[in-house]
Amino acid sequence: MILGTAFLIILYIILKYILAWITYYNNLDPRLGDSTWRFSYDYPVMGKRDISDLDDKDFVRLRRKKNKIVLFMYSIVLVMFISSMSLLSKFLLFFFN
Length: 97
Prior knowledge:
Layout: H1 2-28, H2 57-96
Helix pairs in contact: 1-2
């Protein structure tokens, strides 16, 4: 249980770091919006979406970076959820046995 708790604390610190990066990317360009939990596909790009960056190269690349960070955030949240369920089951087994 101690290792599980330490693992969740480390994941929480990583999550806070990732959220700071998302806030940083949101502040670089107002077209990205202020949302933390969604991917930013709102800005129209000529041609196929996220394949061509001919119109606004800097913004499209910034949006791709932010979307990668958001995807990493979702993966950390998923791992935290699974770890917390494992820790909770160990905790319950410890007290009910």
